[in-house]
Amino acid sequence: MGTTGAARGRPRTFDREAALAVAVRLFWERGYEATSVGELSEAMGIRPGSLYAAFGDKRSLFREVVRAYGRSPAGAFVGLALEEEPTAYGAFARVLREAAATYPDPSHPAGCLTISAATNVTPQDADVEAFLRDLRNANLSVFETRLRTAQREGELPADASPRALAGYFAAVVQGMSQRARDGAGAAELAEIAELALSAWPGREPGPPR
After folding, report:
1. Residue 99 vs residues 92, 113, 144, 186, 202: alpha-carbon distances, Å
2. Predicted confidence (pLDDT) per residue in 123-142, tens digit
3. Which residue of 106, 172, 173, 185 has the lowest C-beta tally within 10 Å?
4. CB 183 within 8 A of CB 106
């Protein structure tokens, strides 16, 4: 009989998206360095050869993991807040308050994958650390751009520093992620969020929400 035009070779016998979700969780829990290809393939239910065939090497898989995480509710909330809120204060208030609820959520590993997954990597994996650092710095630039727009529109006083304020809120978010990984709960993180918001330039102190 003639060929049907179908791709030759053994078809994949696993759900790629389900396997990727397992990899997200494993890297999120353990970090890049402490997660081996053997552990990944075992948890994903595939052979190492199938992992390489489907995702490439460990670095390539990790980059895909980061993209998948960024599309998930736990990874997308920052961008959504900045896009959807009509005021800069409302956007940053939502970012901090949602971080306080999201980072300690017991339904997934604590903290933020892009903040914590590539700490203490070996020199040969420095590009992985740089990859995440670049993502975080890109988010910092988005923060600053939003704050500069707020200043032009009169929401921030003229003597405020959008650069410093963006760095401040980025540092608070990163610190909240680490506190969640150290066991802090939603109530503690919510208090931190409200305290951070009290530093908003020119805003009168008021009720938390």
Report:
1. 10, 13, 19, 9, 24
2. 888 899 999 999 999 999 99
3. 106
4. no
Condensed to tens digits (0 to 9), the pLDDT of residues 161-209 reads: 999 999 999 999 999 999 999 999 999 999 999 999 999 997 765 544 5
| Rounded-to-integer distance, Cα 77 and Cα 178, Å | 18
Name the nearest CA neighbour of 61 among 50, 71, 72.
50
Q: Are 62 and 135 in contact (CB under 8 A)?
A: no
* b/e sequence 143-153, b meaning 16+ C-beta within 10 Å: bbebbbebbee
pTM of the shown model: 0.87
Write out the H or E segment, with its range, that includes residue 50. Answer: helix 48-55
